[in-house]
Amino acid sequence: MTVDALKRPRRRKPGIRPSKGYRAFQVVNAIILTGVVVVTLYPFINIVARSMSDQTYIISGQVNLLPKGFNLEAYEHVTSDAMFWRNYRNTVFYTVVATGVALILTTTYAYVLSKKHIKGRTFLVSIAVFTMFFNGGLIPNYVLVTSLGLKNSVWAIALPNAISVFNLLVMKAFFESLPLDLEEAAAVDGLNTYGILLRIVLPLSKAIVATMVLFYAVSFWNSWFSAFLYMDRQELFPVTVYLRNLIAGSTGAEMAGAIAEADEAQVDATIKSVTIVLTTLPILTVYPFVQRYFVSGIMLGAVKG
Amino acid sequence: MSTPKILDPPPTTMAEPPLPPVARKVRKGRRSWRRALRRDWQLYSLAILPLLFFVIFRYLPMLGNVIAFRRFRPGGGIFGEYWVGLRYVKMFLGDPTFWNVFTNTLVLGGLTLLVCFPLPIVLALLLNEVRTRYLKRFVQSVSYLPHFLSIVIVAGMLMQMLSVDGVVNQLVSALGGEPTAFLQKPEWFRTIYVSSELWQTVGWGTILYLAALTTIDQDLYEAARIDGANRWRQTWHVTLPGIRPTMVTLLILNIGTFMAVGFEKILLIYNPLTYETADVISTYVYRVGIVSGNLSYAAAIGLFESIIGLTLVLSANFISRRTVGTSLW
Hints:
Shape of chain A: globular
CATH topology of chain B: MetI-like fold
Shape of chain B: globular
Structural class of chain A: mainly alpha
Radius of gyration of chain A: 25 Å
CATH superfamily of chain B: MetI-like
Oligomer: heterodimer
Number of helices of chain B: 16
Structural class of chain B: mainly alpha
Number of helices of chain A: 15
Order of helices and strands of chain A: HHHHHHHHHHHHHHH
Number of strands of chain A: 0
Distance between the termini of chain B: 19 Å
Largest sheet of chain B: 2 strands, antiparallel
Helix content of chain B: 55-70%
Order of helices and strands of chain B: HHEEHHHHHHHHHHHHHH
CATH class of chain B: Mainly Alpha
Strand content of chain B: under 5%
């Protein structure tokens, strides 16, 4: 995704050389951007360092970039917790189911919307777009999901979030850019609409389908609030809620107004760090590989949507 | 408009007898609907499930807001028992906590907009001046990273960093200060919230601007240079106007989410000690509705919030269409 700045011939033009001021700016710019990188990465490095350090060094505030009193006891502790793994598996399961549902609904609707000739298209688009600006709000949604009996099931997570309108518009823009001739040729050869979508359009759309899988999977992997709202039993929680309950202990949020004692909160400092690291790990591992697809997906939506 | 050639051969009888305009319009409309359905029923059938989704999970809750004007009892119908009129609206208008959370929402929303809207533009401009390709890509990749983290993880990291033994306090001690439990202090909440928002969103926010920057016509720079513009003036007169449509679009979208300031993050990092500055409308709605079970009252406040949000988007869109000529629709 690089932005072309490099191709600009500017610097090579005879007679136009970077001025002193501009060179000074380049130096300052490099310093600022280095600062951005440091500030962004620091929290990650610090949390990893804490997760591998000895309690006593953490409590005395000595852990910085490198672990002190290196040990992996906390990792053993967390990974030996059956509930942690159970919740981890739940997260995988919820993500797969919810992403599947979201993908089917988004693809079919985006495909319909991409057909410029169908009647009522503007109406169908408006129905979706309006929900970007107005929604029922927390309470009516809660009442609805509860009274539909979706509590304590994966559907409480998957169904209410099945279509993200932003993703829908990105996908619609992509479908619109496909050559119409192919579909027409397929229709002449006797394929019906379903056949065209499954056998012509989708194979041509691997890039966008992959982008959508990523978008949805990451958002479901990261989500915690619907599970927090609609699941009552600990064995149903995704790992995000497990983590939330672990860290909530330290602020006393929700805990009947209890104010956590500063030193009490420290006892499990490493445990928290380890859980944070383990929950982030999958994202951090795939991130370098998938990041550019996200970016191109966003840009696609920006340029065409 | 593309014509559906194969699926719909043009009717052979083109010469229709002229009809009176009104009657003709009605008949034509109805007939073409029937024709459209016959021709495209397979396409329409694909839209059924998604439409059901929108009706049930998006529009039904909008109607569900009537419980703001009705008495609701858990276990009863989802639309409540009987009408109570504006009772709950009056209740929250006279509720001092409501006005406190309202102010907090405005302050946090305003600060976030003020900080998190312009800084991605600045970062994008700075990145655009980097001539080394891989360096630029590296900085970009790193700056997007926080966007992919769960809000729970961000909250967890915040707590670790701001705890008494955390890095921030290490720095404070190194500078000779007294360690502070930042998350327990109402006066620190706004700073913490806004800077963590910035950390999480600034890199991601540059994507669209960088995309917009590539579309600027290079000849404009050429022309500006011939006119004697230096780098700064080129940025001011060519680059910024070039990305103006993107800026306006994103500003409108940002204004739209103004009222719904970081509900999930605040819910995770606030606590009774910091309610004074941290409690916003949506977290109050959560506590009143879900925690205390006063669903009708909470729905009334939530509805108020959504309506303000909608009004803000509509007016921002209207103003920008009138003044800058760019709008969302």
